Amino acid sequence: MIRIIVADDQPLVRAGLTALLGSEPDIEVVGVASDGDEAVTLARELRPDVACLDIRMPGRDGISATRALCGPDVEDPVPVLVLTTFDLDDYVFGALEAGASGFLLKDAEPHEMVAAVRSIAAGHGTLDQSLTRRVLREFAERRRTQPVSAQRGSELLTARETDILLLLAQGMSNEEIARELVVEVSTVKSHLARMLPKIGVRSRLQAVVWAYQNRVVTVPDEA
Predict the structure, then answer these.
(1) Domain covering 149-213, topology
(2) CA 207, 114, 111, 107 torsion: positive or negative?
(3) pLDDT at 220
(4) pLDDT tens per residue, range 68-96
(5) What is the CATH number of domain 2-130?
(6) Band (223; pLDDT cuts 50, 70, 90)
(7) What is the DSSP letter of 207?
């Protein structure tokens, strides 16, 4: 059973998400919160598999709550799915840097919301597919003039790990990566398990963000 908490300052949205996710046979909503402070307190107390956080809440916002639950200095992180109504909101970039395992638009289809929760609970992370290229291009552009904070991938990763990271950045699943590289899915999973600690991240999404920040991957220009 996937245990989650839902945090949103709008009662109708909070109730809708709770009803949607709680109706799934493998998902249990163990707590709800109306602001960021309450969300952090609940998550630390209940230790859910996923915390679904609205990015804009009174008091402690979604970014601050995300950093408190799964930032780089947190020893026992709670995976966070950030929900937003803004497709290129500045808060999204801050949430990625704060350690969020994924983000999704609130107007996503119900099955996409459920799939995102399951993906994050499984340790895969998720990024709204309609926004991936736009968000990562903007993310890379905003940091183009800033110093790189980690060594380049070529200095840290094997050739095969770099191949997998490049395909991961294209949004491929483990199965798609395995087909592309003509290897077993278990081989892809093993490489990922070794790669993530090398670059100091905890999820596939954070690995993609790291790759763009460190210019291991670049966003192609639109035609």
Answers:
(1) Arc Repressor Mutant, subunit A (1.10.10)
(2) negative
(3) 55
(4) 999 878 888 999 999 887 655 566 677 77
(5) 3.40.50.2300
(6) very low
(7) H
Nearest to 61 by CA among 89, 95, 32: 95
| Euclidean distance between CA atoms 78 and 74, whole angstroms | 9
Structure tokens at 33: 């919160």
Which tokens belong to 2? 């996937």
- Can you tell me whether residue 104 is helix, strand or coil? strand
- The number of residues in the chain equals 223
Pairing state between β 102-105 and 2-7: unpaired
Phi-psi region of 215 (alpha: psi -120 to 50; beta: other; left: phi over 0): left
Strand ranges in 107-163 using DSSP code E only, listed in sequence order:
126-127
User: H or E stretch including 4?
Assistant: strand 2-7
**pLDDT per residue as tens digits for the range 132-176:** 556 666 666 665 544 444 455 567 889 899 899 988 887 788 888
- Sheet of strand 27-33: strand arrangement: 27-33, 2-7, 50-54, 80-84, 102-105, 126-127
Domain boundaries, the chain: 2-130, 149-213
- Taking alpha carbons only, the member of 127, 124, 104 closest to residue 21 is 104
Angle between helices 90-98 and 132-142 (to 10 degrees): 80
